[in-house]
Specification:
Elements: E1 10-16, E2 37-45, H1 48-56, E3 72-73, E4 100-101, H2 110-117, E5 126-137, E6 139-144, H3 149-152, E7 161-165, H4 173-181, H5 187-205, H6 208-216, E8 218-221, E9 227-239, H7 241-247, H8 276-290, H9 299-305, H10 335-358, H11 362-371
Bound molecules: zinc ion.
């Protein structure tokens, strides 16, 4: 079995510790770059471009879609009609009037089509969008939307690459904090440091090399021996709600709780925009906290951030903002974690209650059937 772990570089990453005291105590004023620091050991990661190279130069590449396409269904099309009598491929306006678009893969999505059509022309090399898709649950995984989800879903395909392991905050953090400031570590500061840690790791991942490739592309000799100009794009990031809150730098279940549109009630179609104004606001609030000694839970900070449930952490993904990237748009809905888990649990409980009414052996019969279902991969989920 191929183990990526053996090749991970180990890094001791320093994370800034806010010089912020609890309420009711004297204010600590200190410029941000002079604030006390503590070390978080064991940030294990693979550079984003290494993952890209490994995927495009490995055997998985054979199944990659390099050019996105539209996938349409024509309900009126009879199976006896030969393809030659069907409408042409382009322009798409010639498709039958009642055709339906089928969405299921990144390479058939309007987002990838748009990214592909915006690629600068290259007279000598084929230009390709590498569609990064991230998943995280403390462990960050990455794979590419150029490959079908049906292949990626197979445990034996090894399509998922380990991107990074986010360490926990050190056990002795509370002791260090107390020693430094002579006040106990509050839950507010702890939550803030979790945001800082997540984005410190992503600052490492979004390295200068990656940003250069993001802007200018990277030329790779792919698995088939052909050189291509690859443009890395980040398309989706899937995580459970607490982790999305850290990634989107918003307050947990605040007034604007949705990590994508910041509205959980109406869910606007378009994502919230990462803007220079937003970044300026975060920098301004950090200056208030560090240099002016404002309290994080104080009214001035609250007034500045509350309208959009923001937190005073610089979002690492904002490094790509000036190149057209909007981090709010990547947080896709996770039906299992955000909706279906609760609904399914309620339906399942109801089914078991029905089985109890049906007869004594009904529940054990259902258990027996469940035991016959093979586990996913080598383990349980
Ligand atoms: Zn929303």
């Amino acid at each position: 079995m191929f183990l990526v772990l053996e090749f991970f570089p180990l890094l001791n990453q320093q994370i800034l510790l806010l010089s912020q005291r609890g309420e009711g105590l004297n204010k600590v004023k200190c410029p941000e770059d002079e604030a006390p620091e503590f070390e978080v050991q064991g940030v294990i990661y693979q550079p984003l471009l290494d993952v890209l190279m490994e995927s495009f130069q490995g055997p998985a590449f054979e199944k990659y879609h390099l050019t996105p396409f539209e996938y349409c269904h024509d309900p009126a099309l009879h199976p006896t009609i030969t393809p030659s009598s069907t409408p042409g491929h382009e322009p798409f306006g010639e498709l039958p009037p009642k055709h339906q678009h089928v969405y299921g893969e990144i390479y058939t999505s309007p987002a990838m089509m748009k990214a592909h059509l915006m690629l600068p022309p290259d007279p000598t090399l084929e230009t390709v969008v590498a569609a990064y898709m991230f998943w995280s649950d403390s462990t960050h995984l990455a794979n590419f939307g150029n490959e079908s989800k049906y292949t990626r879903a197979q445990p034996t395909s090894n399509a998922c690459q380990h991107q990074a392991y986010i360490p926990s905050l050190p056990d002795d953090l509370a002791d260090q904090y107390c020693k430094q400031f002579r006040v106990p570590l509050s839950s507010l500061i702890l939550t803030h440091l979790k945001h800082e840690l997540m984005h410190a790791v992503w600052v490492i991942l979004l390295s200068a090399e990656f940003i250069e490739a993001y802007i200018y592309s990277i030329v790779l000799e792919c698995y088939d021996g052909v050189k291509r100009r690859i443009f890395p794009h980040i398309f989706t990031y899937s995580a459970d709600y607490p982790e999305k809150v850290l990634l989107a730098t918003i307050k947990y279940l605040g007034g604007c709780p949705c990590p994508r549109c910041l509205d959980m009630k109406t869910h606007s179609k378009s994502a919230q925009e990462d803007t220079p104004w937003l970044q300026h606001k975060i920098s301004m609030v950090r200056q208030w906290i560090f240099a002016s000694g404002q309290l994080m839970a104080g009214s001035a900070v609250d007034k500045a951030l509350k309208a959009k449930s923001l937190v005073p952490t610089r979002n690492a993904f904002s490094k790509l903002r000036e190149y057209g990237f909007n981090f709010y748009s990547i947080f896709v809905l996770d039906f299992l974690h955000e909706f279906e888990l609760g609904v399914w649990k309620a339906v399942f409980t109801h089914c078991i209650q029905i089985l109890h009414v049906i007869g004594v052996g009904a529940v054990s019969s259902m258990n027996e059937r469940y035991r016959k279902v093979p586990t996913f991969g080598w383990s349980t989920i």
